[in-house]
Every structure is written in C-alpha cells, then in structure tokens.
Design a protein that fits this description.
Number of strands of chain B: 11
Distance between the termini of chain A: 56 Å
Order of helices and strands of chain B: EEEEHEEHEHHHEHEHEEHHH
Number of strands of chain A: 0
Number of helices of chain B: 10
Bound molecules: adenosine-5'-triphosphate, magnesium ion
Structural class of chain B: alpha/beta
Helix content of chain B: 25-40%
Strand content of chain B: 15-25%
Largest sheet of chain A: none
Oligomer: heterodimer
Structural class of chain A: mainly alpha
Shape of chain A: globular
Distance between the termini of chain B: 47 Å
Largest sheet of chain B: 6 strands, mixed
Strand order of the largest sheet of chain B: 7-8-9-4-10-11
C-alpha cells in the first residue's frame, strides 16, 4: 500500500552500493599503481630482466601483429568506403586521403589497436598470472628467491609499453594502405590527390598525439592486466572473473584516457 | 635454529594456527603431523615467510621474520627449499628447466655443470629421462618428485616438505622418505616434513610435532609419540575412527542440518 519507505530504502541501497563500488574502484587504482611502481622499480636493479622483456615483447607484441594488421586493414577500407560516399555528395572526393588518415592516426589507430591488445594480450596476461597464483607458482618463485614482481610483472608491463606504440604505427600504415587501395583502386579517386591531401593535412602533432595515446594506453593496459592477475582470488572462478574485469576495465579505461588525452591535444 | 613464539594465523573466523611455540633443531628431521585442516600447510607457509602471522614471531637464529627486509628474506630463502603440497612447478618450463631454475637464477655455473647437477637430482627421484617433459604431461606423483628435485637443486640447508609422499605409489613414497632421512643425516640438512603418513613420518623423524586444530597437542621423539598416553595421539597414530578426535568438524547438529535450514547450503 504505502511503498514510500521501500523506495527510500532502495535509493539508500543504490547510492550505498554505488559509493562502495566507487571506493573500491579508487582503492584498486591505488593498489594497482603501487604494485606497478614497485615492480617497475626493478627495471634498473639487478638482476636485469632484459631476456624476459624480450620474451614478452615477442609473445605480446609480435604475437599480436596479425590481428592488428587485419583490424588496421579493415578499418582503413571501411573508412575509405564510408568517407567516399559522404564526400561524393559534396563533390569533394579528393579530400578522402586526409579524412582517412586523420581518423586513423588521431583516433582509430590508437583506440582500436588498444582494444585489440586488451582482448588478445591483456586477457592472456591476467589469466596467466592468475593461474600462477592459483597453482602457487608465484609462491614457488618467492621460495626460490626470485621476485615475481621483477620477473613476471615488470617484463609484461614494459613489453606492453614498448609494443603498443609500434603496433599502432603498423595499424596506421596498413590502414592507410588499405584505405588507398579501396579509395584509389576500387572507387577511382585520383591517387595523387589522395596522397597529396593526406600529406598536406597531417601535421607532426597528429603523429605525436597518436603515439602519446598509444604509449598511455600501453601503460594503462599493462598496469591493469598485471594487477588483475596478481590480485585475483586464487580460485578458478577468481581467475575467470579477474580476466573479464581486466578486459572491461582495460577497454573502458582506454576510452576514458582517450578522451582526456584528446582534450589535451586539441 | 627456528623458533616460533606464540605464533597465530587466523583466516577471518577460522583459527588455522593458535599460539604455537615450536622449536626446530638444526640438522634434524622434524615431522609435523595432524589431521586435515589442522594448520600444517599454514605453519609451513608462515615459516617460509610466504604468509604473515596474525600475531607472534618466527625466529631464525636471532632474526625475526616480522619486519625482515626483502633482501634479507631472499638471502634466507636462497638457503631454503620447499616442496609444495601441489608441486607448484613452473608450467611454462620443462622438467629440466624447472630443476635447473634455481641454479640458473642464483649461480654462475657453467651450462655443463648445471646439466650434471640436474641429471643427478632427477636420478635421485627416479625421473632421469623425463627432462623434456612439460609439467602438464606428468602425473601428480611425478610432478611431486620433480618438485622434490627442484627443492634440492641448490643443496639447501633448510627444506620444507608439504606432504612429500602423498600421491606417490608406495615404492616411490618409500624412496622419497628414506631420501629425506638420508639427506638430513649426510648433508646436515634441516628438514621440516608435513605428512599424514604416520608410519613413514615416525620412521624418519628426529622430532615429531602433532597438531590438532591449530595447536600442538604432543611433541617429542618418535618413541615418545608412540608411547604417549594422550588418547588423541593414540587415536591419530593408530588411525582409529572413534576417539576424542571427531571425524566431522561440523559444529551444528547433523539432524538439524538435515531437517531444517533449506537454502543455507548452496551449490553454485
Ligand atoms: N587462504 C586461506 N583462506 C581461508 N582459510 C584458510 C586458508 N588457508 C587455510 N585456511 C584454513 O585454515 C585451516 C588450516 O588449513 P591448512 O591448509 O593449514 O591445513 P592442513 O593441515 O595443511 O590440511 P591438509 O592436511 O588437508 O593439507 C583450515 O581450516 C582452512 O580452512
Ligand atoms: Mg596442507
């Protein structure tokens, strides 16, 4: 009959849990920062982890090349197609080159590249570290006087930071190439105009902004995915949940960071 | 050499270890026995510094493990070995690389010397020829033996064994048990062995500690334990189903649980 108190209760419950969620999120961010900073502090300490960084660069970076190439190619192709039909309405198909290039270099390269890396490399980092936690491999390392932060976390974060900007550059190049093929070879835009416009409109700042974003996303993904794995509840469910959370937090984090960085560069 | 002082570890409401005072002597085999959930693994993890006590102290000679620096802890651990209850082999490395791991990490030894040492350790546990196998290709008992070889790779001074013989066939278990006894005597190793295997435990022990619900209920040489007149000790070493130690650790009434409280036990 009178459901006012119930409503009030619901509201309190809602804001209560929202508040708790928010506090937990802040707390995790703090934890993740501490974990990654204390791990990265081992970069210049003995023993030098160079070999393990290279191994991770290969696994995470080189291993992700194909998926980045495919994503880049189709992104460039779709952009050229969409751009062409939009621009054709105004008779300005010659602008296609700059349109495709700006969209890819400033936004789509870093963001889509980062998404692909969260899904492919980030999730595997979380799952791998989580399983090492469940099976006590991290404890075994500790017992052999090998610091898991230096050995496991550090190389993965560094590999992420180095490989994402490189992969994003590949994404850009392949995307532009694919855009050129669709625009010029298939749709018949003038090749000279395509490239001329592209070169005229892209400033060094655009390239720089793209790399800074890629670097930022690399740090973000590396930190989140290693943290989620390291702090996973040591059960099968815990690792599954951590992996999902890593992908969600990584992707959303990329979008938020993208907005922040874009607002700096524009 | 290792002493605990009012050592306790709680997990929320569960008291895994309750104010224990234990003394582990150098160059001896100390066997820790006790039923499931009596706090044996917890004790080992605390002694190894893998977990922090809720209260109390662990002394290694004059060094307190509480507040020890990471550097000193690692220095201490480079003299330790541990066989985990579930082996904890590094999944991404072959059997050879797992056993070689501590040597590669902490020594400047030549590849060929390491090879010799790994081969010797694997021979000791009867797994020479399995160097190329990955941990996923091993049976539980084989993994345990690899873990054993790995723990001994650096010829440690102190070794923790968490159920070194569980999951092994009787012959392997016998070999491993006598190996522990042997190594302790010959190489002046200090071993702390957690086991359910009363027979093997009493056979190799210089000192036995019996845990029950996180407390030490008896300790002494094997003979002292065998002839203890504590009914709980007798029940444990004879494996009698009835006696002062209940098989079930539930606190609620069985009948109550059967009849009432629908929905309190849930499978998800
Ligand atoms: N990480 C943990 N979180 C919560 N409770 C724990 C944890 N580890 C151990 N416990 C609890 O502490 C008690 C002692 O556990 P422990 O693993 O030390 O037993 P155990 O003597 O090694 O048993 P088992 O012989 O079955 O291996 C148990 O009641 C267990 O439920
Ligand atoms: Mg145990």
């Amino acid at each position: 009959m009178n459901n006012e108190p119930a409503q009030q209760n619901n509201a309190i419950l809602f804001f209560g849990s929202l508040g708790r969620w928010f506090l937990r999120a802040i707390e995790s961010m703090g934890d993740a920062t501490v974990l990654s900073v204390t791990s990265l502090a081992h970069l210049f300490a003995k023993p030098w982890q160079g070999k393990h960084i290279v191994i991770q660069l290969y696994a995470l970076g080189v291993g992700s090349f194909v998926i980045i190439a495919i994503t880049g190619a189709f992104t460039g192709m779709v952009l050229a197609l969409q751009g062409y039909y939009t621009l054709a309405k105004f008779g300005s198909e010659s602008l296609l080159g700059s349109g495709v290039a700006l969209a890819i270099i400033r936004e789509l390269g870093p963001v889509l590249g980062a998404f692909m890396m969260v899904g492919r490399a980030g999730s595997s980092i979380t799952a791998e570290i989580g399983i090492m936690r469940v099976t006590e491999q991290l404890d075994a390392l500790q017992m052999m006087a090998v610091n898991p932060k230096a050995r496991i976390i550090l190389p993965r974060i560094i590999a992420m930071i180095i490989s994402l900007p490189l992969l994003v550059s590949m994404f850009d190049i392949i995307g532009l190439g694919a855009g050129y093929i669709v625009g010029v070879e298939l749709l018949g835009v003038n090749g000279g105009a395509f490239i001329g416009e592209m070169i005229a409109k892209i400033t060094p700042m655009d390239l720089y902004a793209g790399w800074v974003k890629a670097l930022g996303f690399g740090i973000l993904i590396g930190v989140i995915c290693t943290y989620m794995g390291y702090r996973a509840t040591p059960t099968t469910e815990g690792v599954a949940k951590a992996t999902t959370q890593a992908v969600v937090a990584g992707s959303v984090g990329v979008l938020i960071l993208d907005y922040i960085l874009t607002s700096f560069f524009l | 050499m290792i002493r605990t002082e009012k050592l306790s570890r709680h997990f929320d409401d569960v008291v895994a270890l309750d104010s224990t005072d234990i003394h582990i002597k150098e160059h001896q085999t100390t066997v820790v026995m006790g039923g499931s959930g009596s706090g044996k693994t917890t004790l080992l993890r605390l002694l190894a510094g893998l977990e922090c006590p809720t209260s109390g102290h662990i002394w290694y000679g004059k060094d307190d493990l509480n507040g020890i620096s990471q550097k000193n802890l690692y220095k201490l651990r480079s003299r330790m070995g541990m066989v985990f209850q579930y082996s904890a082999l590094l999944n991404s490395l072959s059997v050879y690389d797992n056993v070689a791991f501590p040597l590669v990490e902490h020594t400047q030894l030549d590849e060929s010397v390491i090879h010799t040492m790994v081969t010797m350790k694997l021979e000791q546990v009867g797994l020479r020829g399995f160097e190329k196998f990955m941990p996923s290709q091993l049976s539980g008992g084989m993994a345990k033996r690899v873990a054993f070889a790995r723990a001994l790779a650096m010829d440690p001074e102190i070794v923790f064994f968490d159920e070194p013989t569980s999951g092994l066939d009787p012959i392997s278990a016998g070999v491993i048990a006598s190996l522990i006894g042997d190594l302790t005597q010959r190489t002046k190793m200090t071993s702390i062995v957690v086991t359910h295997d009363v027979h093997a435990g009493l056979a190799i022990a210089d000192h036995v500690i019996l845990l029950w619900q996180g407390k030490v209920i008896a300790e002494g040489t094997s003979d002292v334990i065998r002839h203890s007149d504590d009914a709980r000790v007798q029940q444990f070493i004879e494996g009698r189903p009835d006696g002062p130690i209940p098989f079930s650790r539930s606190e609620t009434s069985y009948i109550e649980d059967l009849l009432h409280k629908p929905g309190t036990v849930r499978m998800s």
